[in-house]
Amino acid sequence: MGEEEDASRRPIASRSSSWAIGMSAWLARTGVTPNSISLFSILFAGIGAALILFTTHPIAMVCAAISVQMRLVCNLLDGMVAIEGGKKTKSGAIYNEFPDRIADSLLLVAAGYACGFAWLGWLAALFAALTAYIRVFGGAVGLPQDFSGIMAKQRRMAVLTAGLVAQSLETLISASHWSLIFASVIIAAGSFVTCITRTISLNRSLESL
Q1: pTM attached to this predicted model
Q2: pLDDT by residue (tens digit) across 128-146?
Q3: Residue 56 burial (CB count, 10 A)
Q4: Which domains does the chain have, with CATH numbers?
C-alpha cells in the first residue's frame, strides 16, 4: 500500500493486527517517510528476483519467498504510516502505484526466466499490471476502486511464495522447475480472469450511473 484516500485503499485484514499497528506507529515516530517505505518494496522485490534468477539453491528459493513477503509488508506499512501515522503527502499517489508495478514485474518476469518460459513471466507481469490499470481506471472515472478478483496482488504473491517454497523442495530431488511453472501459469491465468471480471464489473457500474 501507499499513501491513498480511504476510498481507494485496499482492504487488508492484517492492517488491524497488533504487529502491524505497533510497527507502523514506531515508523511514524521516526524520520522514515511512507514514500521511502514504498521504494523499499522494490528493493525487496529486486533481491527476490535476483535470487530466483541467479541461483537454484533451495535456501535461495526460501529467501526469495521471504523477500516476496517483505515486499508485501512494505506495501502494508507505507499506507499505515501515511494514513494512521499522519505522514501523507501529495505525491503519495505516485508511490502508491508505481513501486507495486515495478515489484510485480521484477518477481514475475524473473520466475518466468527461471522456469525456462520467459514469455510466461512477461505474460503474468502484463496481466498483473492490467488488473491494476482497470482498478485505477475505475477510480479515475469516479467509481470506488475495485480490488476484487481471484488474483489480486496478495493472492498473486501468495501463489508465488508457495511456488518458491515448493521449488526449494523440488530442487532437492530434481533439476526440474515444475513448481515455478505451475505458479506462473496460475498467476497469469488468474490475473487474466481478474482483468475480465473487473472490466465486467466496471462496465456494469458505469451503465448504472
Answers
A1: 0.91
A2: 999 999 999 999 999 999 9
A3: 16
A4: 6-207 (1.20.120.1760)
